[in-house]
Amino acid sequence: MLNMAEGLARLGALAASPVTATLAEAFAAAGFELAIVGGPVRDALLGRRVSDLDYTTNARPDDILAIVKPLATATWDIGRAFGTIGAKIRVADSPADQVEITTYRADSYDGVTRKPTVAFGDTLEADLLRRDFTVNAMALRIPGPALVDPTGGVEDLVAGILRTPSDPDVSFGDDPLRMLRAARFTSQLGFTVAPDTEEAMARLRETLRIVSPERVQGELVKLLATDDPVRGLRVMVDTGLLQEFLPEVPALRLEVDEHHHHKDVYEHSLTVLRQAIALEHARHPDAAPDVTLRLAALLHDIGKPATRKLEPGGGVSFHHHDVKGARMARKRLQALRFDSDTIAAVAQLIEQHLRFFGYAEGAWTDSAVRRYVRDAGDQLERLHILTRADVTTRNKRKAAKLAGAYDDIERRIGELAEQEQLDAMRPALDGNRIQEVLGIRPGREVGEAYRFLMDIRLDEGAIDEAEAERRLREWWSART
């Protein structure tokens, strides 16, 4: 719960920081206003960690540059057209702080693209009115300091409400990406979207199509990197936003047939995502959020709607939904302009997420365990987490059995790794040595020989070079 006295004390500390105080004094001496604006003000009031500070002023870009140059070790004006000047400011012996200072804006939009016609404004209050949400439309005027809150942002912080400073239809019509930001902030801050704002998101969801895939992807990544992305995902599904760029997830809400019963795939997928995040934190508490793992958890069952088959007697099957889902995920993530490594990893995890469940029905041979590790490759740890998270049964006995089985496979992987350096699983001979032993040139036969030796490695464990050469010659002789 927001404690205003403590929040205001934190704002005072922001204003008193050496760099901020130095900038405030310099702008005031030049006859201009300066304020800390947006997220840093919100987070200071909430007691959240504040990182970079955003400043705004009535000074134009040339004036900003003239004021900060004497204080800066470096400046840049790549954002000059948008009123932004960047600088590195060093005060006394402290490390240089990187800052960005932007002229008040009074932009307008044409409704065709989300790129504004840039216009500079004259007042802080007008600048705040054009921002995305009231909780981000607060500023700390410096020196002073004085809190400026023309749209009731403090009241909305107390209530945990997200709403736009102006008519939501106008705000989202100006910039549809704000709708995705609303969903993200519900997860990031634990807030609820105001009813009229959420209704506008549903009405205007199709306007999201003017936003570039890269920007949509960026918001999705930020959402998934929060501690509770499920909250924001529900907002996007309920308003229809997710249908616009990731329709495979809303499609998981399969119609329930009165004669054929199966678990709710949509709710199951959200539970798997939550459980994957919990395991991620437990196993790697100091690591950054693993968005690749979280994408795989969210999308692991997207092949089910396309493979659902109603069986006689009331059963339902989803044969090969893992393979189908991997193909679907690859196509969708490509459309969202994810990088090739992320796409490959997510597709691989989805395709392999069912492999373990055969182990639960009966212990594998050492060869099968080696193949599991070989096929998972550098995604093995993510596959461990995803597979464990995929157990959502309420049957405690069944859940315990599956958890015990996965404990066992991880134990066996560890033992084999100690015995055989499983992480570097390669045949005893590489491609060059194969060519030397068989007296052949590079080509298809080298690959076939390598796979022959790899099968021995997987089935029997490590063998020495002499034995590998003997086996290779026998294989080659029998083959020719």
Concise structural overview:
This protein is an alpha+beta fold and 480 residues long. The chain is built from 24 helices and 11 strands.
Please describe what this structure looks like:
- The chain is of the alpha+beta class and 480 residues long.
- It folds into 4 domains: 1-159, Beta Polymerase, domain 2 (2-Layer Sandwich); 160-245, Hydrophobic Seed Protein (Orthogonal Bundle), CATH 1.10.110; 263-424, Hypothetical protein af1432 (Orthogonal Bundle); 431-479, no CATH class.
- The protein contains 24 helices and 11 strands.
- The strands form 3 sheets. Strands 3-4-5-2-1-6-7 form a 7-stranded mixed beta sheet.
- The longest helix has 25 residues, at 396-420.
- The protein starts with a helix and ends with a helix.
Top keywords for this entry?
single chain, 480 residues, alpha+beta, Beta Polymerase, domain 2, Hydrophobic Seed Protein, Hypothetical protein af1432, 4 domains, seven-stranded mixed beta sheet, two-stranded parallel ribbon, 24 helices, 54% helix, 9% strand
Largest sheet: 7 strands, mixed
User: Strand arrangement, largest sheet?
Assistant: 3-4-5-2-1-6-7
Q: What kind of oligomer do you see?
A: single chain
Which CATH top level class of the largest domain fits?
Answer: Mainly Alpha
Protein name: Poly(A) polymerase
Organism: Microbacterium telephonicum
Domain HD/PDEase: 261-404
InterPro entries: HD/PDEase_dom, HD_domain, HDIG_dom, NT_sf, PolA_pol_head_dom, PolyA_RNA-bd, tRNA_adenylyltransferase, tRNA_CCA-adding_enzyme
